Amino acid sequence: MACFNPIAENLETVRVDIKTAAQKAGRDPAEITLVAVSKFHPRSAVLAALAAGATSFGENRVQEAAEKFPVPGAKLHIIGNLQTNKAAQAVQLADAIDSLDRFSLADAIDRAAQRAGRLPDLLVQVNIGDEPQKSGIPTADSEHFIRAMRARFGTALKGLMCIPPADLDPTPFFYKLASMADTHGLPIRSMGMSGDYEIAIAAGATHIRIGTAIFGQRPATSLPPT
Ligand SMILES: *Cc1c(COP(=O)(O)O)cnc(C)c1O
């Protein structure tokens, strides 16, 4: 029998760090939603985090998410590059899709939402560093794309998400995303992961997506965030 579960302890550490980072930035910690990224970890890890007070979870593959969710009391965010042919399943399962980044995916989500009679919250993922290998709408196209998504999905479009380049100081990228969200009057800025969430909070993150710092290392075979 497991008598020691590091997940609760890790969560508490992250919570304290969020609070400290928020206070340092003159922000209310209650404005910041922690999305616990449970990809590659079993449903039991989700339940452990839920028991320790986590309420929002992130998964980057719909198939894997469907093996663990729904979990009563847990909100599910799809945070990874979403294939068009998985959009229908994502629409049924998720409370939020954080990786809307192209018109073909918007079409698939729209069709699936009509059929399912439900539409998750949507975030546009911006390829904030314009990296060729990364998902997200290129920054040059983002203005037009965000306007089009707003026109199409109305208030279901809640905000923007980004993953800055891994090898650069993320600060200017976070500020850029926050400013784009401001320009469009969008309330949510999902930015910051285990290695940089304190910086993201200083730059105005409303949602941070934390995997490793809560659940520990993922298997070496897991793919980096795209
Ligand atoms: C895996 C992943 C995360 C969490 O990364 P950690 O460094 O483990 O906190 C956040 N966002 C996205 C999009 C991811 O794929």
Keywords summarizing the entry:
about 20% strand; about 40% helix; nine-stranded parallel sheet; 9 strands; alpha/beta; single chain; binds pyridoxal-5'-phosphate; about 230 residues; 9 helices
Low-confidence stretches: none
DSSP strand content: 15-25%
- The gross shape turns out to be globular
Helix content: 40-55%
Report the major sheet.
9 strands, parallel
How would you portray this structure in words?
- With 226 residues, the protein is an alpha/beta fold.
- 42% of the residues lie in helices and 18% in strands.
- Strands 1, 2, 3, 4, 5, 6, 7, 8 and 9 form a nine-stranded parallel sheet that branches.
- Strand 1, helix 2 (43-51) and strand 2 (56-59) form a beta-alpha-beta unit.
- Helix 4 crosses helix 5 (103-116).
- The longest helix has 19 residues, at 6-24.
- It is globular, with a radius of gyration of 17 Å.
- The protein starts with 5 loop residues before the first helix and ends in an 11-residue tail after the last helix.
- Bound molecules: pyridoxal-5'-phosphate.
- Pyridoxal-5'-phosphate (PLP) binds at residues 37, 39, 60, 79-80, 163, 193-195, 209-213, 225.
- Residues 37, 39, 60, 79-80, 163, 193-195, 209-213, 225 line the site of pyridoxal-5'-phosphate (PLP).
